[in-house]
Amino acid sequence: MRRQLAWGFLGTLLLGGLQPAVAQTTVCVIRIHEDISRNTLYLFRRGLNEAVSRHAAAVVLEMNTNGGRVDATEDIIRLLERAPLKTYTLVNQRAYSAGAYIAAATDQIFMEPGSVLGAATPIMVTPGAGVADLPKSYEEKLTSAMRALIRSTAQEKGHNPDVFEAMVDADAGLTVAGTVISPKGKLLTLTAEEAAREYGQPPRPLLSSGTVDSLAQLLAKVGLAGAETFEVQPYGFEVLARGITVIGPLLILIGFVAVYVELTHPGVMLPAIVAMICFGVYFLGYFAAGLAGKEELALFVIGAVLLAVEVFVIPGFGVTGVLGIGAILISLVMAMTHRWPGGPLLPAWPDLEMPLVKVSGAFGGSLVVMMILAHFFPKSSLFKKFELRATTSAAEGYTTAASTARSLLGAVGVAETQLRPSGKGRFGEELVDVVTEGDLIERGAAIKITAVEGSRVVVTRTG
């Protein structure tokens, strides 16, 4: 009997050791203890992405804020509306204005004793002067827009939209089940006790799902008792990302112009370095903002390689060049859009609208600058500095020595490469670095040396 018990105990141990470990339930905590800004948005985005990547059961927003920027708030609301996991708000002390809007976009709201939520009417804050009066027409327009936003958000999350409307518009007032909660002419602000008070038949809390003393008590109320929590901390890159994303279109414009200068004057290298710095800083900013990932960077590299092949391997401008520019533009747009980890490859259209406007505007601006450069740059003194200097290369079998070039003045040959406007021309046995006066000349076209200015050999098309 003892032997059977011993073998049974040993088998239990062995089988127990072979059982897969039970995954620990995790909850992400994002603390908002400051005025809401673009930096808050970047922290939100990174926190939600991390929560989804770590398969968290929920995200809790611990809130103590006086409000903040409307644009950042709207972006945060859109993120919360599409978040593929449960979201909860814990009002630590106060959630005024933008804080109330964000709370409306979470699935449930809890409040600590003594905390308040509300007073969400839009205001204008001017640097150095504080709160300023809005023009009446603009105030009505902004209030109407925010009322619509918060009603839609509250309805989607199952909150009473009339409660939030009374927080935005003093003229709305709030009456529930025959009880006047807030008279017209007064903005609604709720204490924890008032928000949890029940009205109607069957009784239903006005707004709050409960008053709790701690995060642990909130988790117990939503069935996540004992869950492991992790907090997303802000870091300096959020501040850096804010500045970079603001100047993103300018970086795109400068980057494309630099690429154009490098392609039309191969070998100079400085424009290529400028382009790499611009696009590198661009992607760094959007990495830090939690938008760009490895896929966008890989697509950009593929586009750059295709463009290089078009220029240096198969001169002309055909399918490879179009695909290269297309891949680069798509990567720049995708770097501005938010996608959930493991979610659909393509973002939703609302997320694409603004990035498309920014990238297309920057690319269009770069085309204008390119046309201006093509017209004026060849005539400038700076143009001469960008031309290829005299070199001799036995391995490649060509020379551009000044004496040889002068002896070829008036000679007729063919364009060995495409001239954009610089490249190489063959004159008999001589392969010479040449430049046009700004016109593009195709590879194989007949050319003639019309001037030799030091090591600068100028050619024109013949025939």
Number of strands: 20
Q: What proportion of the residues is helical, as a percent range?
A: 40-55%
Provide a count of the helices.
Answer: 16
Radius of gyration: 32 Å
Helix- and strand-based class?
alpha/beta
Describe the protein in words.
- The chain is of the alpha/beta class.
- 47% of the residues lie in helices and 20% in strands.
- The protein has helices at 2-18, 38-53, 70-82, 98-104, 136-157, 161-168, 192-196, 215-221, 236-246, 248-264, 270-288, 294-312, 319-334, 349-376, 381-385, 402-407; strands spanning 26-32, 58-65, 86-96, 108-111, 116-118, 124-126, 130-132, 174-176, 179-182, 189-191, 198-199, 204-205, 228-231, 392-393, 398-399, 412-415, 422-427, 430-435, 446-453, 456-461.
- α2 packs parallel to α3 (70-82).
- It is elongated, with a radius of gyration of 32 Å.
- The N and C termini lie far apart (109 Å).
- The relative contact order is 0.08.
- Mean pLDDT is 79; it is low at 9-22, 125-132 and 388-401.
